[in-house]
Amino acid sequence: MEQVNVGIVGLGNVGMGSLTILAENAAGIAAKLGFQLHVKSVCSRSVDTKVLPAALGQVRRTSDWREVVADPEIHIVVELIGGTGVAKELIDAAIAAKKSVVTANKELMALEGAEIWDRAIRSGMNLAMEASVAGGIPIHSVLREGISGDRVVALQGILNGTSNYILTEIERHGTAFADVLAEAQRLGYAEADPSADIDGFDARAKLAILAALAFGVRIVPADIYTEGIRRITPIDFQYAHRLGHTIRLLCSARRSDDGLFLSVRPALIEQSTILASVQGAYNAIWVRGHYGQDTFYYGRGAGPNPTGVAVVSDLMRVAREIRAGSPERVSPFAHERLASNRPLPIDLRKSAYYLRFRVQDKPGIIAALAGILAEKHVSLDAVLQLPSDSKHNLPFVITIEPCLEQAVAEAVAKMAQLEFMVEPPLAIPMERPL
């Protein structure tokens, strides 16, 4: 039984989780492969402080990733350090050294994954990245192979566990955003600098990757319309529930006759939909195909073991290819080539909207707001006002009928200038189910 040797660079949560699985499940992995996966080298800046699973046996430790890449006995390099600097240098060096790569790097794969794959295929190597989106949910495999015969027309997903944890805690307990964020940081769900999660950038990178897999397009993440969750308050959930909805940070991709609409933003979704039941740090993706219709994928979106499963599964797939010497490789992006694409401007979409206001109470407020909506040809649907003791910071909600989002944006910008506004209006789309 000839083994395949692996070098792992990056021993954070995912790296250590992957090592645990490789050690504890070694027999099961070998039984499936017909040969062993052997961890030959590990690398991190603090490698000497790491306690490795004893079952791994003798493992070389180094703090220099170049030593891992240069080792002629290593067949697969695993990049788990993240970012777009050293990680890119490492992956490029591994491919140049004729080594296949497994990575969990969503940011780098979203920005340059297609070009890296081109270099890998020219070098005769493989690139695998299942762990870059949705942790333990094998959504790459689904889009790349499982439903590859279908034509995806839309997908919606909850792709950031930190934001979903914060939103569901606000919903359950009525706690202010800042307090829930602090608790999430204490528990390790949120980083000391949480902006990538709560401002939507982490989810944006993941959506760019899924768009490549689902639609065959190369999307620059910065071109995706993105909003975060900082302004969501307990009162928004109270009003959402009155409307039969809840609020989630929703990644959305829809194919239209003119192109693709892509967005990452808080959205009201109906409580009766399956996405509304996704709680805490879990992730979910709902895919609609032209032929196969709806499929749904749910699981832990992060964590050492769920993400480690994705890393090890990629290692197994790449190791099989190395042993079989297969000349035909399925692109990690599911398409032979990706077409450059820019999403359609979100202003061109039609959506119903939830508008939440905080005002200093006085006569004529509703008339003034309704006048602005009418001026922009936006039809008012309903006005909701829960009991409140404050007349100087009075919250209430207006819902509007589906209309062009550009009209909503223009109306909200004009409303923000009204002298009775305590803060700019909060505008959240009311997403229809797929």
Topology record:
Blueprint: E1 4-9, H1 13-24, H2 26-33, E2 37-43, E3 60-62, H3 65-70, E4 76-79, H4 86-96, E5 100-103, H5 106-122, E6 127-128, H6 139-146, E7 152-158, H7 161-173, H8 177-187, H9 195-198, H10 201-215, E8 217-219, E9 225-226, H11 234-242, E10 245-256, E11 259-270, E12 282-289, E13 293-300, H12 304-324, E14 339-341, E15 350-359, H13 365-375, E16 380-384, E17 394-404, H14 405-415, E18 426-430
Parallel strand pairs: 1-2, 1-4, 2-3, 4-5, 5-6, 8-14, 9-11
Antiparallel strand pairs: 7-10, 7-12, 10-11, 12-13, 15-17, 15-18, 16-17
Helix pairs in contact: 1-12, 4-5, 5-10, 7-8, 13-14
Provide structural commentary:
- The protein is of the alpha/beta class and 434 residues long.
- The protein is built from 14 helices and 18 strands.
- Strands 3-2-1-4-5-6 form a 6-stranded parallel β-sheet, sandwiched between helices. The protein has a 6-stranded mixed β-sheet with strand order 9-11-10-7-12-13. A 4-stranded antiparallel β-sheet has the order 16-17-15-18, with helices on both faces.
- Helix 1 (13-24) packs across helix 12 and helix 4 packs parallel to helix 5 (106-122).
